[in-house]
Amino acid sequence: MDSKHDSKRLKLCLICCSQAKRAIPDSLLNTIDAYLIEGFQRDDPRFGGGLCKTCYQTLLEFRQGKFSRCLPNWFQGYSEMSNFRCKRNGQQCTCILCIRSERIHLYGTSTKRKRGPAPTQIYKKPGILQLCNLCLEPITCLSDHKCKRIDKGKEAAKQLLQTASPRGVKRLAYELIREELNDTGSAKMSTGGRPVKIKKINTSGPNNNNLPHQFKCSDIDSLRLKNNLSITQSLGIAQEIRRIVGKSAIEPNLKKHIQTSNKVFETVFAVTTYKDRPLVYCSNILEFLNIVQLKREDEPVLYRFGNDLGRGQTKLTLSILDTLEGENQRNKKTDMSKSGVKRCFVIATILDIGETYELIEKMIQLTNIESVFKKYGSSRVIFSSDLKLVNISLGIGSHASKFPCGFCYFQVTDESDEQFMERTFEDIRERNQKWINETNSNVRKLKDSKYMNCKDQPVFNQISGKVLDWVAPSSLHLMLGLTLRIYQALEKSYPRARDWLASINIAFQPQHGGQLAGNECRQIMSKVQSLKSFATIDGQLEIVEPYAEVLQALNAVVVCCFGNKLLPDYENAIQDFVQKFESLGIAGRMTKFHILKSHVVLFIKSRGNRGLGWFNEATLEASHYDFLRFWARHQIKAKDSSMAKAHLLKAVLEYNTLHI
C-alpha cells in the first residue's frame, strides 16, 4: 500500500470526509459493519481512516441502540474511488482523498478555521446503510440504487449463459462457491449491492435433519416450560442461536411475543389479602375458560378442579382435558401429556396459610368455580383432592372421627359388609343445620348418628346430589395409604424389611412423620420377587409371603384401574385384593381401604368405565413443585408486603400462560 496515501486518508472522516479527530476504535468496528459497510476493514484505501467528533458520537449512540441523532450525508466523492489502485514507483497519488486531505491537519489537532456541515446538508432518519461493491454509492431502504458499472457485469453474465452449456455454468458456479467457502463452511458472495450469504449443509441423511430450521415463538415457550427458563434466559438462548445459526433461525419479535403472552390472563386475575398474606385468584373463571379454549382450539370434555397445600402454598388448580380416551394422550405440538402437570392451571393460591375450612371457602367464593359446575354438570366437572381436603370441602369431620368417609355414612367400628347410605350435599347441609339448632354447636354431639360428623356446610353451596357424582375417590392417596399400611405390618413381622428397602434404593419421606412417594410405592409393588429372595436368604419366606401376595394383588389393582386405561377384569382384581388384605387383619379403622372396597367400582361405572387416572389428584400434587420453580424467580422475603402481591400475581400469570 502507498504509505503517503495511507497517511493522508487517516486525516479524513470515514463518513463525511471532513477533518478526523480520532482513529476508528475497535469498539465501533461491529457498528460500522452493521450500519455502514458490511465487511469493513480499517486498512481499506478507498475510505477515510478516522472519525470526526459528530460521526464518532453518533456511532456510539448507534451501538447503544439509540437513534435520536442522525449521521451526516455520505461523502459523494467516494464513487470516484470505486476503481482506485495505489500508485507505484513513487508516483504522486491524485485521488480525491489525497487532494481533500491536503487542506486539513492530522486528526487530533485543531485548525484555526472552524468547520461544520455544509448548509445544504439534509439529515435523514438513520437506516441500515450499505455500499455498492462496484461503484461505492450508498444503498439505503429509502432510495433505489442503480449501479453505474452493473450493466457491464450483466452483459458478461448474459453472454456466458448464452454461449456455455448448462452443465458448464453449474460447474463454474460450484467451483466459485467452493473456493469462497471458509473453514466453517460458509461464504459471502458479492455481486454488487448486499452480499449473499451461503452456508454448506449436509443433505445426505434420509430426513435432511441438518437443513436450516426456524424456531417458532411457541418452540421457545416449550423450552421455557420444560427447562424452567426465565424470560432473560430464554432471550439469551435465542440470541445465541441467532449468532450460531443465523438471524433467521428464530422467529422475529420473540421478546414482544413473550411480553404479550404473559398478559393474556391479566384481565381475569386479581389479588387480595387474607390474614396479611397475598391471595391471587381468578376473578372471571368463565372468561378464563374461553381464553384457554380459543388458544388450544379443542373442545373440553372434563374440567378437573383440585385443592391442596404444598411447598408453602395452598392452591386451587384446574386441568382441562379434551379427551378421555386412550392410555397416554399427548399434545402433538408440544409432546406433553394433556392431563399432566404441564397443562395444569393455578386459579388461586396463597402464601403460608394452612388448609382450613375458612380458606377453602374463601377460595371457592372468590373464583366462583361453582358457575362451571352449574354450567357443565357432573358429567364434565370433577373435584379431585386428597381425602383430608375432601372432608374439609364437604364440611365433615376428619378421618379420625366416627364417620370419616366423605362418600357414605361408613362407621369405623362397624366391620360388617353392608352397604352404607351414600352422602348427598343436601343431607350434609340438613344434618349440619340440625346439629347447630339442637345442640347449639356442641362438638361432642357430632358423632351422634343424627349428625354424622357434619360440622360445617359444604363449601359448594350450589351443588346438589350424591357426593360421589362430583368428587373423585383420591386414587393416588388410596395407593399411598394402602402400600404404607401393608409395609408397616410387614416390618413388624419381618424387621429386616427396612434393609430390603435400602437395597432397592427406597427411603421414607420426612413429611408427616415418614411417608412413601407414589413412585416408591409402585417400586415396592413391582419388586415383590426381590423381597421374597431377600427373605429366603434369612429363612423368613413363610412370614413374608402373605404380605408379598397382598402387594402383588394391590399392584394388579393399580394396573387395572388406577391409570388412564381401564382393564376388563378390574372388579376381580379389587375383590382379590380385598380378600387378601382382610386376611392379614390390618383393615381396621382404615377409610382408604373402605373407599377402595365400596366406592371405586361405583365411581368407575358412573364415569363411563374409564380409568381413575383421568380423575385422580396426581397432577395437583405435582403442581406444587412445578409452580415453586416459577415462584422462586419472583419471591421476596416480606410476604406480607404490597410487593409480594405484585410478585405472586406475576408468577401466576407467567405460569398459566406457559401451561396453555
Would you kindly provide a written description of the structure presented here, covering whatever features stand out?
This protein is of the alpha+beta class and 660 residues long. The chain has five domains: 3-139, no CATH class; 151-199, no CATH class; 217-261, no CATH class; 266-471 and 640-658, no CATH class; 475-614, no CATH class. 42% of the residues lie in helices and 9% in strands. It has helices at residues 3-9, 29-35, 53-63, 96-101, 150-163, 166-180, 217-227, 231-245, 254-261, 285-296, 357-367, 370-376, 387-394, 425-439, 475-493, 497-503, 518-526, 528-538, 541-562, 570-583, 591-598, 600-606, 618-631, 642-658, and strands at residues 22-23, 50-51, 130-131, 138-139, 186-189, 196-199, 269-274, 277-282, 302-310, 313-321, 344-351, 381-383. The strands form four sheets. Strands 7-8-11-10-9-12 form a six-stranded mixed beta sheet, sandwiched between helices. The protein has a two-stranded antiparallel sheet with strand order 1-2. β7 and β8 (277-282) form a beta hairpin. α18 packs antiparallel against α19 (541-562). The chain starts with a helix and ends with a helix. Mean pLDDT is 86; it is low at 106-114, 118-127 and 330-336.
Helical proportion? 40-55%
The count of domains is 5
**What is the end-to-end distance?**
63 Å
Q: Counting H and I runs of at least 4 residues, what is the number of helices? A: 24
- Spans where pLDDT lies below 50 across 5 or more residues: 106-114, 118-127, 330-336
Mean of residue pLDDT values: 86
What form results from the Cα inertia axes?
elongated
State the major sheet: 6 strands, mixed
Task: State the oligomer.
Answer: single chain
The fraction of residues assigned to DSSP E strands is 5-15%
Q: How large, in whole angstroms, is the Cα Rg?
A: 38 Å
Structural class: alpha+beta
Strands side by side in the biggest sheet: 7-8-11-10-9-12
The counted number of beta strands is 12
